[in-house]
Amino acid sequence: MYYERIFTDLGGLIVDGPNYFEDFRPATGYIDRILKGAKPGKLPVQAPTSFELFINLKTAKALGLTIPQIPLATANLIE
Questions:
Q1: How much is the pTM?
Q2: What angle do CA 17, 4, 9 make, to 5 degrees?
Q3: For the stretch 24-53, what's the b/e string if a residue is b when 16 or more beta carbons lie within 10 angstroms of its beta carbon?
Q4: Which end of the chain, N or C, is surrounded by fewer C-beta atoms within 10 Å?
């Protein structure tokens, strides 16, 4: 199990974690506030809001694994 999609693209079985591209979008708002004088320590901490699940079906097959239907229905599949 990995934390970034590149690993499933390279043959890893599963990626489950935050969508880093989506989570960096609010950073521009933080930069703007800091440049306007806000103190970084006073800004709220933001947790990830979007997550992604990727399953490499080729790797699962090579390992002899059967992926249950619920993860298959919600995951991005790599074949």
A1: 0.70
A2: 130
A3: eeeeeeeeeeeeeeeeeeeeeeeeeeeebe
A4: C
What is the Cα–Cα distance from 18 to 72, expressed in whole angstroms?
A: 18
Nearest to 41 by CA among 30, 26, 52: 30
Residues 45-53: what's their mean pLDDT?
Answer: 85
Report d(CA 53, CA 18) in Å as an integer: 9
Q: Give all strands (DSSP E) within 1-79, no chain letters.
A: 14-18, 51-56, 76-78
Residue type at 62 in one-letter notation: A
Each domain of the chain, given as residue ranges in start order, spans: 5-78
Q: For residue 63, what pLDDT is reported?
A: 96
Res 64: pLDDT: 96
Mean pLDDT across 27-31: 88
